[in-house]
Amino acid sequence: MRPRILIADDEPTIRKLLKLEFERAAFLVDLANDGNMALTLLQNVRYDAAVLDISMPVCDGLQVLRAIRQQGLPMIVVMMTAYGSIDGAVTAMKMQADDYITKPFDPPDLVEKVEQIRRVRQRMAQLGRPHAVQTPTLIGKSAAIVQIRTTVEKIRNRNTTVLITGESGTGKGVVAKYLHLTSDRRSLPFTHIDCASLPHNLIESELFGYEKGAFTGATAQKKGKLELAGQGTLFLDEIGTLSPELQAKLLVALQERRFTRLGGTQDIPIEARIVAATNENLEQSVADGTFRADLYYRLSIVCIECPPLRNHREDIPELARTFIRSHMEKTGVALERVDDDIFDVLMAYDWPGNVRELENTLESAVVLSDGRHLHASDLPKKITSCAGGHSACASPLSLENQEIMAILAALEKHGGHREHTAQELGISRRSLQYKLAKYHLNK
């Protein structure tokens, strides 16, 4: 059966070129000229893969990606971006894109990228194994990881709100689950809502639920995440993206420990522990007036900071060995040997996508290895080129410079319009405001 792919880009020339190239590779191709059209097609057609432009008017590629992952669709997703900025790459990885490609590119390169991911998926499917690995515990012996374990040990059985901070991919969700699984709530639900994955007008009903007839389309009662969590744990990921109106409503619910469904009158008690996470600087957001100070203080009774992987490189070998063993078990690949120098190569790279990028990299390396011996050469070139201090491996300083250049270019392109600039870069407006202040670009 021929694979079917969805291509979403607002540039007609790119859509036409990619359609021709994928059809040459025996794909069935559907085209969308914006994110809304892509979402409509996704409701009616089952796709094997999607190629999405990050920057599109009205509804961008990241919004489409969020919808795909929120619905649990198992399709391959590759993002196209006009900027090779760390923000674009990390944001896409955070939302579980399979890969991304920077414009301009040769269409055959994109086809090969999609085909390679398909080969990995097909090999794992033949083995009857899932393609994802979950880490059940906190791995590492660095001071930062030991501190997280110590904090969790102190608070695990206390009914207090917790705020987990850190860059995308540092393991905030893993820490939240670790806290839940080591607590006396471990046998109760762990309920997760990604506040960045839904439009603002849908998050409220997802969180609080609604009664039949509460609004057009509410044909039956629906319980919200606050209610479904019961006496377990409710994990509010990307809390910094909440609208001011929803921040106010959540604050009242947390203060009173009760809420009502939309369209309802009955008070429902909140019995779950609330754990929130963000990759934004909420203190800065409070100073900027984009996040409520009273909600921040309510959420941050206990704060846990997840460090970027580049700041605890000593944990990379243990993490890598754990991921390699896990992927061997999941895929049925019985490696007889792993080269020692592979760990030196891994430690030389800066890992802008942090632990998630490390795990995804090793999953691909194991599956695409010869099945017996894992070599450093099985890693992507962007990682092996960093060994020995190669200039292709960007330092944190040069990465910041790249980010500044990308922001300035996008601001100039859009005449200083913040909303359009944020969409171009594939980040939220709050993230853009924070970065403008961080790099003193507000002048």
TrEMBL record:
Domain Sigma-54 factor interaction: residue ranges: 138-367
Listed SMART domains: AAA (SM00382), REC (SM00448)
GO terms assigned for molecular function: ATP binding; sequence-specific DNA binding
Domain annotation Response regulatory: ranges: 4-118
Positions carrying 4-aspartylphosphate: 53
InterPro entries: AAA+_ATPase (IPR003593), AAA_lid_NorR (IPR058031), CheY-like_superfamily (IPR011006), Homeodomain-like_sf (IPR009057), HTH_Fis (IPR002197), P-loop_NTPase (IPR027417), Sig_transdc_resp-reg_receiver (IPR001789), Sigma_54_int (IPR002078)
Keywords tagged on the record: ATP-binding, Nucleotide-binding, Phosphoprotein, Transcription, Transcription regulation
Pfam families in the cross-refs: AAA_lid_14, HTH_8, Response_reg, Sigma54_activat
Gene3D superfamilies according to UniProt: 1.10.8.60, 3.40.50.2300, Homeodomain-like (1.10.10.60), P-loop containing nucleotide triphosphate hydrolases (3.40.50.300)
Annotated GO biological process: phosphorelay signal transduction system; regulation of DNA-templated transcription
PANTHER family reported in the protein's UniProt record: TRANSCRIPTIONAL REGULATORY PROTEIN
Role summary: May play the central regulatory role in sporulation. It may be an element of the effector pathway responsible for the activation of sporulation genes in response to nutritional stress. Spo0A may act in concert with spo0H (a sigma factor) to control the expression of some genes that are critical to the sporulation process.
Protein name listed in UniProt: Stage 0 sporulation protein A homolog
UniProt organism field: Lawsonibacter hominis
